[in-house]
Structure formats: structure tokens, C-alpha cells
């Protein structure tokens, strides 16, 4: 049962956001920064965010050469450039909001490994640099095959190495912890362990039906505007939106003495990605090995993909080096036919800000601003 006091003071807000990942927290901040007097509540089902935001690789990136080339061929130049611009702007918004230290942000640069079976034309790289210059104010991509040796990678089957001086790393745990604190410092209430089961938009306001393990009576919240930042977990609420879950898997090694590289690195069109964290390696990806099997919201590991990560670690990234794995984990992303996120009003008082792909760390700065504008 709920008390009179609980019903009176805890259940009614101007704005309720479902989902306390980087997108939900950033949307709450953007709204409070614009409209400080509005009451904002975040309903999060986990003790802390339980989707992608605390489970990613912490790349502060806008896309590798081969990934952008793929995007251009699938979605066209304009959309590909728009996505890059949003990622670059989004990172700036996070930096302004938190400061680089609280995000563990470092401009480390990085690179991309191309294999013998992947096409590469120098002219294509120059054209891409030309398109990116107005956004990044730099000649972003350069070829430098000598880095393969310098960084200690295996040179077997590698045809090219493309450096990128503009990208960097964040510490995803630190970022989310500090963003959480900043969000609450603005007066946003965050309730954890509150799973939203259903909602009803009457046209005048919204009613939200939730479940909490310790409450026998289902709390029903009301608000003027309801925002869904549930990313991969959205199809239950919006079966018609093009949002498909995609599981991502990662491993982290224990510290490795004499690790030769620093930065963020990609191969196979960004399907595999690795970075240093001090002298550890954080390495993830491999969804392309079993795309159908990884179309799931189940937070679990798959041996086939973990074996593929182990294989590349041993044969490509640190060949002939002893290492130990510290931990392995999975998180859930959201994809669709289009790589741009969905930010739209889905009914008079309900907004969806979902489908952040494998780039929500960067994108969420901008998506949050757009959600606040719609509000
Ligand atoms: C393995 C992996 C690696 C990645 N690497 C990078 C990277 O290096 N760089 C990058 O930019 N991006 C990366 N991403 C993508 C990035 O992490 C996501 O795009 C971003 O975190 C999405 O944020 P979000 O807030 O929209 O979603 P989420 O973080 O998934 O948050 C959604 C929240 O909604 C909550 N929720 C869901 N349903 C309900 C409900 N019914 N009631 C209440 N709460 C609910 C969930 O518990 C969750 O906390 C990676 C993702 C993964 C999984």
C-alpha cells in the first residue's frame, strides 16, 4: 500500500524521464538548465543504469575511416556528415557540462587497422579529409604503416594503418558517476528500482504504471511530459519504431607491463575496437560474427564472440605477450536501418529519444539538447 504522504508528494511531476542512462541523465540536465523551475523525475529500473552507458568501451569518437566510408555508401554523404557533426558537438556539450577531468577525457588519438582483403584508395581518404575539415578543422586521417610495429601489433595480413589525431577516450564509469551527481545537483529526482510497465497519454497528461520490488501497491506517477530514454529496451512501448537491440561484448585485461600503445583503435569497419586504460587493454566487438544471435536484450556473454576477442587479442593486438583477463561483460545497444537517432514526439505528451547505436557517449549531448527543445 502507499501512504497518503507518498501519494501527495512523490508521484506528480512536470516531466518524467524513463531510463537513467547517459541519454536520460543528459536530457534531464538539458531541461533543468533551460527550465530550472520545472520538476523533473527519472525512473530507472536498475540500481544504476543497466543498458549500455556503464558497459561501453569509452571511445570519444566520431567514426573510423572505413566506418564512415560504409555510412556514406549506405546512408549518403549528407547523413553521414550530420552524424559526425552531432558526435563532435555532443562531446563538446559533455565537456562543457562536466569538465574533462570528471569524464576522464583524454585526446589520445588512435587509428584503424585495414587488412589485405579491404579496399583502400589514397584518393578516397583525401576526399574524406576534405569533407571532415569544416567539422574538425584538421586533416583527420593519415596513413602510417610504421605504427603497426611501433604499437606492437602483428603485421600479418595488414595492408594499411590510418591514424586519427582528433579522437579520444573517456572513463565511462567516472563520466556516468559524475553526470549522475551533476544531474541531482540541478534538483532532478532519480528513483531507482522503478520499472515502468506501461503508460497512458490522455492528451491532457500522462499516467505511468510502475513496479517496485518492495511495494505491494503499484505506484502510478503522473506528469505533463513523458520522455522515453530507454534506447534498446523501447520496442515494448513503441513496437512501430525501428529500434532493434544489439548486444556488445567486451573484455578487460589485467595491467600488462610494457604495453606499447595508447589511444583508441578500430578494425573491420568499427565492428572491433580496443583501447588502453593505463596499461590494461579494453577490447570489444565481434557482433558481426553472429548478428542474429546478438539481436537480444539479454545481458549475457556468448562464447563464440568471446573466443573471437581472445583470438584477435593473441594474434593481432599483443602477439607473443603474456596477459591475463580481468573481466568480461556485455551491454545492449540499439540500432535501426538509419544510423541517426530517433528523437520525436510519439503522442501529444510523449517524446522518444532512442536508438543511439554504438556512439551514444558522443551523441547524447546533442540528442538531449533536441529533446529539451521539443519539451
Ligand atoms: C559494449 C558496448 C560498447 C560501446 N562502446 C561505445 C563507445 O566506445 N563509444 C560510444 O560513444 N558509445 C559506445 N556504446 C554505445 C553507448 O554506450 C550507447 O549508445 C549509450 O550508452 C546509450 O545510452 P542510453 O542512455 O540511450 O541507453 P542505456 O544506457 O541503455 O540506458 C537506458 C536505461 O533505461 C533503463 N530502462 C529500460 N527499460 C526501462 C523501464 N521499463 N523502466 C525503467 N527503466 C528502464 C535501463 O535500465 C537503462 O539504464 C557502446 C555500447 C556497448 C553496449
Structural summary, described in words:
The protein has 375 residues and is an alpha/beta fold. It has 3 domains: 4-54 and 174-242 and 338-374, FAD/NAD(P)-binding domain, CATH 3.50.50; 110-166, no CATH class; 244-335, D-Amino Acid Oxidase, subunit A, domain 2 (D-Amino Acid Oxidase, Chain A, domain 2). It has 10 helices and 18 strands. 32% of the residues lie in helices and 28% in strands. The radius of gyration is 21 Å and the shape is globular. The protein has helices at residues 4-9, 22-34, 65-75, 77-98, 100-103, 122-136, 146-150, 172-185, 303-317, 360-374, and strands at residues 12-18, 40-44, 59-60, 110-115, 141-143, 158-164, 168-169, 189-192, 195-201, 206-211, 220-228, 244-253, 264-267, 272-277, 280-285, 325-335, 342-347, 350-354. Strands 1, 2, 8, 9, 10, 11, 17 and 18 form an 8-stranded mixed beta sheet that branches. The protein has an 8-stranded mixed beta sheet with strand order 5-6-4-13-14-15-12-16, sandwiched between helices. A two-stranded antiparallel ribbon has the order 3-7. Helix 3 (65-75) crosses helix 4 and helix 4 crosses helix 6. The model has no long low-confidence stretch (mean pLDDT 95). Strand 14 and strand 15 form a beta hairpin. It starts with a helix and ends with a helix.
Bound molecules: flavin-adenine dinucleotide
**Beta fraction of the residues?**
25-35%
Averaged pLDDT, please?
A: 95
Order of helices and strands: HEHEEHHHEHEHEEHEEEEEEEEHEEEH
Secondary structure: helix percent: 25-40%
The first-level CATH class name of the largest domain: Alpha Beta
> Looking at this structure, what is the CATH superfamily of the largest domain?
FAD/NAD(P)-binding domain
User: Structural class, from secondary structure content?
Assistant: alpha/beta
Count the beta strands: 18
How many angstroms separate the termini?
33 Å
Global morphology: globular
Rg for CA atoms:
21 Å
Second rung of CATH, namely the architecture of the largest domain: 3-Layer(bba) Sandwich
What about the largest sheet? Answer: 8 strands, mixed
Which stretches are low in confidence, meaning pLDDT under 50 for 5 or more residues running?
Answer: none
Number of helices: 10
Amino acid at each position: 500500500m502507499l501512504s497518503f504522504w507518498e501519494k501527495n508528494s512523490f508521484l506528480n511531476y512536470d516531466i518524467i524521464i524513463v531510463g537513467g542512462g547517459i541519454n536520460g541523465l543528459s536530457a534531464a540536465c538539458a531541461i533543468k538548465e533551460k527550465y530550472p523551475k520545472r520538476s523533473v523525475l527519472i525512473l530507472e529500473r536498475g540500481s544504476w543504469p543497466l543498458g549500455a552507458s556503464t558497459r561501453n568501451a569509452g571511445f570519444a569518437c566520431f567514426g573510423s575511416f572505413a566506418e564512415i566510408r560504409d555510412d556514406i555508401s549506405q546512408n549518403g554523404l549528407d547523413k553521414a556528415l550530420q552524424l559526425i557533426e552531432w558526435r563532435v558537438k555532443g562531446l563538446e556539450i559533455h565537456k562543457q557540462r562536466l569538465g574533462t577531468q570528471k569524464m576522464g577525457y583524454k585526446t589520445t588519438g588512435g587509428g584503424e587497422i585495414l587488412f589485405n582483403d579491404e579496399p583502400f584508395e589514397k584518393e578516397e581518404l583525401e576526399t574524406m579529409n576534405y569533407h571532415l575539415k569544416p567539422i574538425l578543422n584538421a586533416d583527420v586521417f593519415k596513413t602510417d604503416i610504421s605504427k603497426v610495429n611501433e604499437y606492437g601489433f602483428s603485421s600479418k595480413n595488414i595492408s594499411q594503418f590510418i591514424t586519427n589525431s582528433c579522437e579520444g577516450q573517456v572513463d565511462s564509469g567516472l563520466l556516468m558517476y559524475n553526470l549522475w551527481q551533476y544531474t541531482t545537483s540541478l534538483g532532478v529526482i532519480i528513483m531507482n528500482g522503478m520499472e515502468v510497465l506501461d503508460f497512458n497519454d490522455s492528451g491532457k497528461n500522462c499516467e505511468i504504471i510502475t513496479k517496485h520490488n518492495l511495494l505491494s501497491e503499484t505506484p502510478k506517477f503522473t506528469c505533463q511530459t513523458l520522455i522515453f530514454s530507454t534506447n534498446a529496451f523501447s520496442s515494448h512501448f513503441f513496437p512501430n519504431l525501428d529500434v532493434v537491440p544489439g548486444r556488445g561484448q567486451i573484455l578487460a585485461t589485467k595491467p600488462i607491463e610494457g604495453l606499447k600503445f595508447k589511444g583508441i583503435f578500430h578494425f573491420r569497419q568499427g565492428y572491433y575496437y580496443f583501447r588502453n586504460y593505463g596499461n590494461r587493454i579494453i577490447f570489444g566487438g565481434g557482433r558481426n560474427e553472429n548478428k542474429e544471435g546478438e539481436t537480444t536484450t539479454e545481458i549475457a556473454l556468448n562464447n563464440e564472440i568471446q573466443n573471437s576477442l581472445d583470438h584477435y587479442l593473441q594474434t593481432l593486438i599483443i602477439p607473443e605477450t603474456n596477459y591475463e583477463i580481468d573481466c568480461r561483460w556485455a551491454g545492449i545497444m540499439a540500432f535501426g536501418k538509419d544510423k541517426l537517432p530517433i528523437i520525436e514526439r510519439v503522442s501529444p505528451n510523449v517524446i522518444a529519444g532512442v536508438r543511439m547505436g554504438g556512439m551514444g557517449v558522443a551523441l547524447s549531448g546533442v540528442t538531449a539538447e533536441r529533446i529539451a527543445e521539443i519539451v
